[in-house]
Design a protein that fits this description.
Layout lengths: L4 H15 L3 E4 L5 E4 L10 H5 L2 H5 L4 E5 L2 E10 L2 E10 L24 H5 L8 H13 L5 H6 L1 E2 L9 H13 L2 H17 L3 H13 L10 H22 L4 H17 L3 H26 L2 H12 L7 H8 L3 H12 L3 H19 L4 H7 L5 H12 L3 H6 L1
Helix pairs in contact: 8-9, 8-10, 9-12, 10-11, 10-12, 11-12, 16-18
Length: about 400
C-alpha cells in the first residue's frame, strides 16, 4: 500500500512504462494534481468536464466511458489527493487508418505531441483487466474482485439508453474475450480480400471465422443467432464494396437480396452455402465497377499520401508504389480525380494543418515544417488557396 504522496508520484511513470496505462492524481474537486510525465498533459479541469464527484464515491471503483476511451476512477485519500484515475484506455489500437481529428480527446491535450504519440495511445486488449487489478493492488494494498469492474462500468448519457444495463454487460463481455479481437481481424481480412477481388481467399477466411466459438449468442435460438451474424457480415460486405467504387444502389440491392435469402434458410448448411455465394457476388461487383469508377491504384496513392503527410512525398515514390510510369501516373491521376497529385497532397496537408492549428500547441512555423512545406510563406499561400483564410486568420476564428 502506498502511504505517501511522493511515493505515489514516483510510481506513476514506472507503471505507465510497464503497463502502458497512464495514471492521474485528482483533487477532491477533480482537478489534476499530477500524472504520468511520459504521457500527454491534459487540461487541469479535464476530469471536471467528464464526471461528477458523487459518481465516483458511489462505488469502490467507477469505470467511465468518454471520448472513445475508458477511465477507471477510485477514491484514494492521501494529502490533497482524493481520487486516482487509470486512463484513458482507448477502445482499439490506433492505426494509420485513423486520423487525429477523429479523436476529441486530443483537443484537451495541452502538451506538444507528434503523430507517433497519437499512434501509441494506450488501448484495450486482453491483458488490460489484469493490469488494472494489479495497479489497484499496488496502490491500495487490496485485492480487487474483477466482477466489481463489470458491475461499475457506466457510460455517460444525458438520456439513458433503454438497454443501458444490457449494453454495459455486453461491452465487458466483448472486451474481456480476446476472441473478439481475433474475429475483428478476420473480418478486416475478408473485406480486404473482396476488395482485392479474391473471392477464394475471402470464402476460406469466412469459413474459418464461422468455426470460431466466441461464446456469444444473439438469440436464444442458435439458428437465428447465426442469421443475425450473417446479416451483419452482409452489411460489412456492402460497405466494403462501396468503398472501392461499386455504386451504392447496386451494393444495397445485392445486400437486400441476400438478407432476404438468409431469412428463408432452414439449416446451417444452407447458411454456409449462401454466405459463400454472397462473397462471390460481392467480389464480382467489385470486378465490374472498381476499375471503372475508382481504379485501385488511385486508392493506393491516396492512402499512401494520407499516411505520409509528415514526410516528403515524390512522384517517384508513387510510381514505385503502383508500378506505373511516373508521367503516365501523373496524367491519369488528374484525368480521373480532377486534381493533380500535388493539388491532392496540398488538400490533405491543409486539412491536417487545420486540425493541428486548432488542437495542438505547435506554432504555425512548426506546423509548416511538420507537414513538409518548403517554407512558411509557401504554407501560408497554399493554406489560403484552400481555405480562403491565412493560417493566422484561421487560428483566430
Amino acid at each position: 500500500m502506498i502511504q505517501s504522496k511522493q511515493e505515489l508520484i514516483q510510481l506513476l511513470d514506472p507503471l505507465y512504462h510497464h503497463f502502458d496505462l497512464p495514471l492521474f492524481l485528482l483533487s477532491q474537486d477533480l482537478m489534476i494534481i499530477d500524472s504520468s510525465q511520459s504521457f500527454l498533459k491534459l487540461e487541469d479541469d479535464y476530469y471536471q468536464k467528464m464526471i461528477k464527484e458523487n459518481h465516483i464515491n458511489d462505488y469502490k471503483t467507477f469505470m467511465h466511458f468518454y471520448h472513445q476511451a475508458s477511465f477507471l476512477f477510485f477514491p484514494y485519500s492521501l494529502n490533497d489527493i482524493a481520487y486516482i484515475c487509470i486512463g484513458p484506455i482507448f477502445n482499439k489500437k490506433i492505426s494509420s487508418q485513423d486520423k487525429p481529428s477523429d479523436y476529441a480527446f486530443l483537443t484537451h491535450v495541452i502538451s506538444k505531441y507528434t503523430i507517433q504519440d497519437f499512434f501509441h495511445l494506450p488501448y484495450v486488449n486482453h491483458t488490460t483487466g489484469d493490469s488494472i487489478l494489479f495497479i489497484y493492488q499496488i496502490i491500495t494494498g487490496e485485492v480487487l474482485d474483477p466482477n466489481i469492474l463489470k458491475k461499475n462500468y457506466k457510460q455517460p448519457s444525458s438520456q439513458p439508453l433503454k438497454q443501458e444495463d444490457s449494453m454495459h454487460h455486453e461491452i465487458f463481455t466483448i472486451r474481456e474475450n480476446p476472441m473478439h479481437d481475433f474475429s475483428y481481424s478476420y473480418e478486416k481480412k475478408i473485406i480486404n480480400s473482396i476488395q482485392e477481388e479474391n473471392s477464394t481467399q475471402a470464402r476460406i477466411l469466412m469459413n474459418e471465422l464461422m468455426q470460431i466459438k466466441d461464446g456469444r449468442e444473439l438469440s436464444q435460438n442458435h439458428m437465428t443467432s447465426i442469421k443475425y451474424k450473417l446479416v451483419a457480415a452482409i452489411t460489412l460486405f456492402t460497405r466494403g464494396v462501396i468503398d472501392v467504387g461499386v455504386p451504392i444502389a447496386k451494393a444495397y440491392s445485392l445486400s437486400d437480396v441476400y438478407i432476404s435469402k438468409i431469412d428463408h434458410c432452414q439449416n446451417a448448411r444452407e447458411l454456409h452455402d449462401l454466405i459463400a455465394d454472397a462473397i462471390v457476388d460481392f467480389t464480382n461487383l467489385v470486378k465490374r465497377y472498381k476499375h471503372i469508377q475508382n481504379p485501385y491504384w488511385i486508392k493506393s496513392c491516396k492512402n499512401y499520401i494520407s499516411h505520409h503527410l509528415h514526410e516528403t512525398i515524390t512522384l517517384n515514390d508513387l510510381s514505385e508504389l503502383t508500378g506505373m510510369n511516373a508521367s503516365y501516373l501523373s496524367t491519369q491521376f488528374k484525368k480521373i480525380t480532377g486534381q493533380s497529385i500535388k493539388q491532392y497532397m496540398n488538400q490533405k496537408k491543409v486539412q491536417e494543418a487545420q486540425f493541428l492549428i486548432k488542437n495542438s500547441s505547435y506554432t504555425l512555423a512548426e506546423i509548416a515544417d511538420i507537414l513538409q512545406f518548403s517554407s512558411q510563406s509557401h504554407f501560408h499561400k497554399v493554406f489560403k488557396e484552400q481555405t480562403g483564410k491565412s493560417p493566422l486568420q484561421y487560428k483566430n476564428t
